[in-house]
Amino acid sequence: MIRKLGKLFPSLQLLDNFHDTPIDYKWFISEDGQIIGIHPNEISKRDSKILSIFLQPYNMNIPPLTDQEMWWSKRIHDDHNKSEKVKPFRFIYFKIKGKQVDGAAFKEALQNLYTKTIPVLWENDKEGIIIESEANAVEETIDYEKIIDVFMSDLYMNINFLVGPYFHSLKKINIHYHSMVRDAKTAFSYSNQSVITYKEAILYSMVNQIDDAFLTEVNSILLENIEHDYELLKTIKVYIQCNLNTTVAARKLHLHRNSLQYRLDKFVEKTGMNIKKFNEASVVYIMILSIMHNEK
Q: Which residues form the PucR C-terminal helix-turn-helix domain (predicted)?
């Protein structure tokens, strides 16, 4: 369909990212989620009626780039001088879940939480990258868990954040930027946490690259008796995430300590794995991540 439309409308563009979006285009979205732009000079009233049969109008709610955002975009996507000096900075990936949102409202609410202007580069209408400079001694460090609460209460937006590490130069900025977007998508496919640090995301990326045949074989050997006991697997996963702290894990799972201990004993009995030992806990955690990811 896209190829045929391209012959009828030479200006047609598919929206891959929001960095170079023509602001004077009319935008549509197809049933399979493709966002299509056509210059309005090529669309007659008759064309509009025909297009409306199989395309829905798409409201481009992403605010235009500021001068500051344009500066960062050029450094990331173009071959600019990477030796320029910059303050330490980090990328914060965000994804807004649910229906299409008002990008301008999101950005305004976000800026109100910072003491200085924060560049935002959109990947599409629901996800993008915040570029945050390292806070000085006077400025307050941003708590992204609290930011989520603000957006939920004020704008009814459900958001995920992946908080990246600080960089001290522009070297390899293009690689770091695209790795951040890729690793964030992988991390949130494994975790239901609202905020993930880059250190946590590394583990999910590593698990994602392990050979499926190897994971299947190891699971069948180590977790054969409980591979489909998802309640028990979730319990062990949370227990390990809570650093083997029974009190914290029980609270998070809404269980009595004795009930949690019963499940832990059951796991040891069925698998023979001692998750109080680091090596065995690490293997079990990776196996559980792979099982639960495959069941999504």
A: 232-287
DSSP 239: H
Q: Note whether 251 and 284 are same-domain residues.
A: yes
Q: Domain boundary residue among 155, 176, 207?
A: 207
Same domain flag for 71 and 200: yes
List, for residues 207-254, the tens digit of each pLDDT value: 999 998 998 899 889 888 898 899 999 999 999 999 999 999 999 999
Give the domain extent around 184.
67-207
Q: How many CB atoms lie within 10 A of CB 74?
A: 13
Q: What is the 3-state secondary structure (H, E, C) of 14-78?
A: ECCCCCCCCCCCEEEECCCCCEEEECHHHCCHHHHHHHHHHCEECCCCCCCCCHHHHHHHHHHHC
pTM: 0.77
Residue pair 184/201 in contact by the 8 Å Cβ criterion: yes
Which domain CATH number covers 87?
Answer: 3.30.70.270
- Tally of CB atoms within 10 A around 84: 10
Alpha helices in the chain (DSSP H): 2-8, 45-54, 67-77, 103-111, 144-155, 173-190, 198-208, 212-222, 230-241, 246-253, 257-271, 278-294
Write out the two tokens for 4: 């045929």
